[in-house]
Design a protein that fits this description.
By secondary structure, this protein is mainly alpha-helical. It has helices spanning 5-13, 18-25, 41-48, 64-71, 100-125. Bound molecules: calcium ion (4 copies).
């Protein structure tokens, strides 16, 4: 069992009542961050409404703390911008146009290039 200096005082200042932590949230009253995902129990329960005993609430592979503090994504949704790319695979997880719009532009460009090349060949043979 680890006994750090943080755990000694945390039950006083994590913002949740010890009784609520045990009975309602099932978190550890001696820890500020029960699941160790980088978000304090209080932030999870009150601010973000995420699961305080699960490091990755939406199961997308990014911990709740990473989503909120690093990627700015929704910790309760595996695909924050609903563009069908899950947060860890999405190059712009809070911009629904990326990468789908880029893929469409590339696809159209390739098809157009192929079409123009074919037309040029046909003209050449005439
Ligand atoms: Ca946490
Ligand atoms: Ca997550
Ligand atoms: Ca997410
Ligand atoms: Ca996405």
């Amino acid at each position: 069992m680890t006994t750090g200096s943080r755990t000694a005082t945390s039950f006083k200042d994590d913002g949740l009542k010890d009784g609520d932590e045990v009975n309602i949230h099932h978190t550890d009253p001696l820890k500020v961050d029960t699941d160790g995902d980088g978000l304090a129990d209080y932030e999870e329960v009150i601010t973000h409404e995420t699961n305080p005993v699960k490091a990755d609430t939406d199961g997308d592979g990014l911990s709740d703390g990473e989503e909120v503090k690093v990627h700015n994504t929704n910790p309760s949704k595996s695909d924050s911008d609903s563009d069908l790319w899950s947060d860890p695979t999405d190059p712009a997880p809070i911009n629904p146009l990326i990468p789908n719009a880029i893929i469409i532009v590339i696809a159209v460009t390739v098809l157009l290039a192929a079409y123009l090349q074919r037309r040029r060949k046909i003209q050449f043979h005439h």
